[in-house]
Amino acid sequence: MIYPRNFEQKLGFDSIRDLIKENCVSPMGITLADNIRFSSNTENIKTLLSQTQEFIQIIDFGKSFPANNYFDLRHELTRLKLEGTYIEKDSLFDLKSSLTAISDIILFFKKSEAEDYPELIKLCGRVFIPDGILSACDKIIDDKGGIRDTASRQLLEIRNKLIVKSRQVLKETKKAFDQAKNQAGCLKTLI
After folding, report:
1. Which of 79, 87, 102, 188 has the lowest tally of Cβ within 10 angstroms?
2. How does DSSP assign 51-112, residue by residue?
3. b or e along 78-106 (b: 16 or more beta carbons within 10 Å of the residue's beta carbon)?
4. How far separated are the first and last CA of the chain, in Å rounded?
């Protein structure tokens, strides 16, 4: 334990943590920043400083780093562990968007020279996206967050039936309007 208890406040470490949190783009980043504590572990500090420097280099050189769609799905993923649960449409879209962002980040570092970002590349090496999950999401949900007609055979049948029914209703409505129009024309000739 570090003595005194308000050690981080005396050093201004808590203010630095608050500045970091202000620049986080997701709740997960804020949680990570909240968990940052003073450390005297030299190797850990060197690694974190290297990661920070590498990321500053990405920003300074204006490289196009994927910076969107960092959704916090921890609660939803925990809920999905329960048997019989399913993912809601909006959460599935967020999952697809997040997985796409993660894949783009991995691809960014695969295309980069290993010596440019060694620590960040190591960090990406720990990321695992199960095979086929992104394509499975893509089969169900489109890029605008809508469920695809082809998400299931039953859904396709239902939507096709709805289209047929809509056309029938439109046809009947047009027929009724035409009849009313003809009757109105007849009334005018009688008057």
Report:
1. 188
2. HHHHHHHHHHTT-----S-----HHHHHHHTSTT----HHHHHHHHHHHHHHHHHHHHHHHS
3. eeeeeeeeebeeebbbbbbbbbbbbeebb
4. 100
Is the pLDDT confidence value at 169 over 70?
yes
Cis before 130 (ω within 30): no
| φ and ψ at residue 147, rounded to 5 degrees | -75, 130
So what's the pLDDT on residue 156? 87
How far lies 127's CA from each of 24, 106, 122, 158, 166, in Å? 20, 8, 9, 39, 47
* pLDDT tens by residue, 35-63: 988 888 999 999 999 999 999 999 888 77
Whether the model pTM is above 0.70: yes
Contact present, 66 and 107 (Cβ < 8 Å): no
Taking all residues of the chain, what is their mean pLDDT, rounded to a whole number? Answer: 88
- The pLDDT value recorded for residue 62 is 73
Domain ranges of the chain: 1-38, 43-151, 153-191
Token reading at 27: 């709740």
- The vertex-58 CA angle with 53 and 59, nearest 5°, equals 95
Per-residue pLDDT, 6? 83
Cβ neighbours around 117 below 10 Å, total: 22
Q: What are phi and psi of 141, to 5 degrees?
A: -125, 140
For residue 117, the 8-state DSSP code is S
Residue type, 85: T
